[in-house]
């Protein structure tokens, strides 16, 4: 029987530990600041609890001299940049194409050298993957699960170093980097649990008593290519690791910015016992990588996150070469969304402000599900505007290594230039705050909020990567029209949030917006909860909606085999004179 895992609210986790209850396997492990943890427990139970006494299994030990350790790791990285090679089977390759990874908030700082593979090496990686496929696909599920859980433990032990790399290479704050690593660890353990549950799935087939069916989670016939984005190490690794967990062999092509952290995670899996050739680490030019892997006849699948135009190109490329493949390749993609907050007059202003600032400006608005548009009733707008501007203007933009920093720099130079053009284009609009950028030392864009008066303005339709939020104010009497506008305005449908306190309003909004987002939240930011693992994926032009972070996503990388065994010979065919 298939078992289902339920998400447990964080406060339950505290109470479970207080009562001596065991934690649910696969539950998010949350790194909590001492004072915050103590305050939360004090508020709930009016008791002072010392988190440092008897550190629990669920929480890593918090070092008192953590800032000293972080500075030491930073100096070590700056003194000796990480060398990131191409790894084909058990061979480490340092090519002539040496790409430099610099710090987005301090462009002169060199953090790593990534050695890009050429076409010949990508083809060698394909051969390595196909060679390892026969052996890896026959490895028992229990052994695969053991490798994944062992790797998660190794990664957790090296969490501080990974966190520093995320802060430097992606300009993430300490909190953002910690959450990313926590989400990665949760995903590794949860996916192992999902596969364990899937392997216990049994079919009940109505028929003869002497027929015994068995169901096998067989991998696909060929190799899988994973093209990973920069925004999250948890997402980047899952694109490669989920197909491998299901018995496939993979070519992993991480983006330049996330390649250093991805390499460290790859090394952790090697240490955990992952056989050579199962995952081939192939940083390379994305177009060259895509053209090479899709030219191979044993190309079985592509797992990626990309823009809608990029995914169209991938889809067309595979379609044009379809006749050369030995199977129909599976294409799984997550694309950015035009994510929304729809606010009703019954909503609590404090909740809307807090959720909006975090969703729009966390990680400088570079997540695929960052807030891109907002709909607010006119009766609430004066108060909401004042509190929203106050909260936004208090954000500190700068070096994410500093603890007081709330937002770092933009990672991609192309996204930064698009933001420059967008800010210039909206100079004549009502910019409530922000509107400027600075690339003197790093690619900094200051949080910008713009009030849009035209309901058909393109700002409310197309995705935008950066800390930029357009707000449309609708009259309270036009609630239904505004709801239809939010539902049908954009061709993208990744995530969205509804803010209201009346149940009938919430139900009506959910019904109207059910096709406008594949992850809908109620009184929560559109980026979802920071704790735990939320299945994620978008429809329309926001992807194939395969819900990564769930058992359904794992099944996408399986080609199930049904074996039916008949005992004592085949049963007679009833009604046949030729075969009695």
From TrEMBL:
Q: Which Gene3D superfamilies match?
A: Aldehyde Dehydrogenase, Chain A, domain 1 (3.40.605.10), Aldehyde Dehydrogenase, Chain A, domain 2 (3.40.309.10)
- Entry keyword annotation includes NAD: yes
Keyword list (alphabetical) reads:
NAD, Oxidoreductase
Highest taxon above the source species: Eukaryota
Gene Ontology process terms (BP): L-proline catabolic process to L-glutamate
> What start and end residues bound the annotated signal peptide?
none
Q: Does the keyword NAD apply?
A: yes
One GO CC term, this protein: mitochondrial matrix
Name by which UniProt lists this protein: Aldehyde dehydrogenase domain-containing protein
Name of encoding gene: Dyak\GE21997
């Amino acid at each position: 029987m298939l078992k289902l895992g339920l998400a447990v609210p964080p406060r339950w986790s505290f109470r479970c530990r207080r009562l001596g209850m065991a934690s649910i396997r696969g539950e998010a492990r949350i790194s909590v600041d001492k004072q915050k943890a103590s305050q939360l427990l004090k508020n709930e139970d009016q008791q002072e609890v010392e988190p440092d006494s008897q550190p629990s299994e669920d929480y890593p030990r918090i070092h008192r001299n953590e800032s000293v350790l972080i500075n030491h790791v930073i100096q070590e990285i700056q003194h000796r940049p990480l060398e990131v090679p191409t790894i084909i089977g058990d061979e480490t390759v340092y090519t002539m194409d040496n790409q430099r990874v610099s710090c987005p908030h301090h462009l002169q700082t060199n953090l790593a050298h990534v050695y890009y593979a050429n076409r010949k090496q990508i083809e060698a990686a394909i051969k390595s993957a196909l060679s390892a496929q026969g052996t890896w696909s026959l490895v028992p599920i229990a052994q695969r699960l053991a490798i994944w859980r062992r790797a998660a433990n190794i990664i957790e032990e090296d969490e501080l170093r990974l966190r520093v790399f995320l802060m430097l290479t992606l300009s993430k704050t300490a909190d953002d980097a910690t959450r990313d690593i926590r989400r990665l660890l949760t995903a590794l353990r949860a996916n192992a649990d999902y596969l364990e549950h899937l392997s216990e799935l049994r079919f009940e087939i109505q028929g003869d008593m002497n027929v015994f069916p068995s169901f096998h989670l067989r991998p696909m016939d060929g190799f899988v290519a994973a093209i990973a984005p920069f925004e999250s190490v948890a997402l980047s690794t899952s694109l490669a690791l989920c197909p491998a967990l299901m018995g496939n062999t993979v070519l992993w092509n991480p983006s330049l910015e996330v390649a250093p952290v991805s390499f460290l995670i790859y090394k952790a899996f090697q240490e955990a016992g992952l056989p050579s050739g199962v995952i081939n680490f192939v940083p390379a030019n994305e177009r060259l990588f895509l053209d090479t892997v899709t030219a191979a006849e044993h190309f079985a699948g592509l797992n990626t996150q990309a823009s809608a135009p990029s995914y169209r190109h991938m889809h067309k490329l595979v379609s044009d070469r379809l006749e050369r493949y030995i199977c129909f390749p599976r294409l799984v993609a997550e694309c950015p969304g035009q994510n929304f907050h729809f606010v009703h007059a019954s909503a609590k202003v404090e909740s809307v402000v807090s959720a909006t600032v975090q969703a729009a400006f966390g990680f400088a608005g570079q997540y695929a599900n960052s807030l891109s548009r907002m709909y607010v009733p006119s009766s609430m707008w004066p108060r909401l505007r004042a509190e929203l501007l106050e909260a936004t203007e208090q954000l500190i933009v700068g070096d994410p290594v500093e603890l007081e920093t709330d937002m770092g720099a933009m990672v991609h130079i192309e996204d930064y230039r698009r933001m420059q053009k967008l800010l210039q284009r909206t100079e004549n609009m009502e910019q409530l705050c922000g509107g400027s950028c600075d690339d003197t030392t790093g690619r900094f864009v200051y949080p910008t909020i713009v009030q849009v008066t035209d309901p058909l303005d393109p700002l409310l339709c197309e995705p935008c990567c950066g800390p930029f939020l357009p707000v449309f104010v609708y009259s309270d009497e036009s609630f239904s029209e505004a709801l239809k506008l939010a539902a049908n305005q954009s061709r993208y449908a990744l995530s969205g949030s509804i803010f209201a306190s009346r149940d009938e309003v919430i139900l009506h909004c959910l019904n109207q917006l059910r096709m406008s987002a594949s992850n809908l939240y109620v009184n929560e930011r559109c980026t979802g909860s920071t704790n735990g693992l939320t299945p994620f994926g978008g429809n329309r032009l926001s992807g194939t909606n395969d819900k990564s972070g769930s058992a359904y996503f794992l099944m996408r990388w399986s080609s199930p085999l049904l074996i039916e065994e008949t005992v004592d010979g085949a049963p007679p065919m009833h009604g046949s004179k030729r075969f009695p």
